[in-house]
Known about the structure:
It is a single chain. The protein is built from three helices and no strands. Helix content is about 60%, strand content about 0%. The longest helix is centred in the first third of the chain and has 18 residues, at about 1-20. By secondary structure, the protein is mainly α. InterPro entries: PSII_PsbK (IPR003687), PSII_PsbK_sf (IPR037270).
Amino acid sequence: MLNIFNLIYICFNSAFFSSSFFFAKLPEAYAFLNLIVDFMLVIPDLFFL
């Protein structure tokens, strides 16, 4: 039971930590990679599903 709460705590912490990166912008030379970079932030969360 304690492990479940620890996992939830880690998920929330990683979600709040990664949300600060949503406001970062790539340089204009790499603007075509914006969609890929936005999706890469979601990939670690998919492992918890």
